[in-house]
Amino acid sequence: MTVQDPILRPSGRRAVLIDGKAAAEGLDQAARAGALELTQTLGRPPCLAVVLAGEDPASQVYVRNKVRRTESAGMISVEHRLPASVSQDELLALIGRLNIDPVVDGILVQLPLPAGLDAQTVVQAIDPAKDVDGLTAASAGALVLGAPGLRPCTPAGCVYLARQALGDLTGRHVVVIGRSILVGKPAALLFLDADCTVSLAHSRTRDLPALARQADILIAAAGRPGMVKADWIRPGATVIDVGINRVARPDGSSALTGDADYEAALDIADFITPVPGGVGPMTIAMLLINTVRACARRAGLAIPASVAGTGAG
Ligand SMILES: NC(=O)C1=CN([C@@H]2O[C@H](COP(=O)(O)OP(=O)(O)OC[C@H]3O[C@@H](n4cnc5c(N)ncnc54)[C@H](OP(=O)(O)O)[C@@H]3O)[C@@H](O)[C@H]2O)C=CC1
Ligand SMILES: Nc1nc(=O)c2c([nH]1)NC[C@@H]1CN(c3ccc(C(=O)N[C@@H](CCC(=O)O)C(=O)O)cc3)C=[N+]21
Prior knowledge:
Rossmann fold; six-stranded parallel beta sheet; three-stranded parallel beta sheet; binds NADPH dihydro-nicotinamide-adenine-dinucleotide phosphate; binds 5,10-Methenyltetrahydrofolate; NADP
C-alpha cells in the first residue's frame, strides 16, 4: 500500500483504519509460541512483574488488559498494587526484590507515578536485563546507539502499525507530538532508525498546526483529547493516535478517546489508528514480546524464532 497523491484521492472516501487489535493478536500468537518454547526448556514460564502505584486512569486500562493477555500467552503475570501514599524507599525496596528474584524476567513500573515520587530514580533502579519497558539508561543508550536492546513498547507498536499501512518508511516525514521518555522521544528515535525524517514537537513548539500539516506520518502523543484537528492533517497523511484519554460522556459514563479529532480526521487522512483498538493493544503485544526476549537472554538462550523478527531492536 502507498499513500496516494491527495489530488487523486477520490472525494468522499474515508481513511482506512489501521487495525491495531488484529495486528496485536498476531504478535500475541508469536509471543505465545516463544513462551511455550522457553517453558519447555526452562521448566517454568516467562514471568512479568507489574508495579502500579496510585490510580492513573490510563494505567488502570493498561493493567487490566495486560494481565489477561500475559496469561493467555502462557506467561505468568504478577501484579504489585500499591497505594498512592507509598514511599520512594518502599518502591525501591520492591524493585530491589524483583531484580534479584530469579523467576521474574520483566519488571514494569506504571507511569506516571503519584506526586512526590521520582520516576527517574525508580525506573533507573530496574535491572536493565529485566527492563521490558525499555526505559532504563542502558536501554535508552542502546536505542540511541542503534545497539541491540529492549525497545519501548508503545513506540515500537507505532512503527509496526505505520509499516503495516505504508510498507517501507524510508524518507517519510514523521512529526511526533510529545517528547516524553515513555513515548515521544523513543518514537522519534525508532522512526529515525527506520530512515524517516523526524520532527519532535512539544508544548513549546511554535505553530504546531503548520508543522503537523507537513507530516506524512503524524504521531499524536500529548495526552490532550481532540487536540489534532482536521486542519492539522495533510490530506493523505497517516495518523497514529497514541492518546489514551478517559472523557466523561453526558450520561455520566466515560469513554476512551485519543488525541485526534477522530471523526474529522477520517475525511482527511488516508490511514488512521482508532482509539480504542489502535496503538493500545500493540503496546501490550510488544510488552509480551519483550518479556519473551528478556527471559531468553537472561537464561543465555537464543531468542525464540517466533519472536526474533518481530518488535523492534
Ligand atoms: N496507547 C498506549 O499504549 C499508550 C498511551 N499513552 C497515552 O499517550 C499520551 C501521552 O503519554 P505520555 O507521553 O506518557 O505523556 P506525558 O504527559 O509524559 O507527555 C506529554 C507530552 O506532550 C506534550 N504536550 C502536552 N500538551 C501539548 C500541547 N498542547 N501541544 C504540544 N505538545 C504538548 C508535552 O510537552 P512538554 O514536554 O513541553 O511538556 C509532553 O512532551 C497519554 O494520553 C497517555 O495516556 C501512553 C503510553 C502508552
Ligand atoms: N511504564 C509504563 N509503560 C507503559 O506503556 C504505560 C504506562 N507506564 N502507563 C500508562 C500508559 C498507558 N498504556 C496503555 C497501554 C495499553 C492500553 C490498552 O490496552 N488500550 C486498549 C483499551 C481497550 C479497553 O479496555 O477499552 C485500546 O486502546 O484498545 C491502554 C493504555 C501504557 N502505558
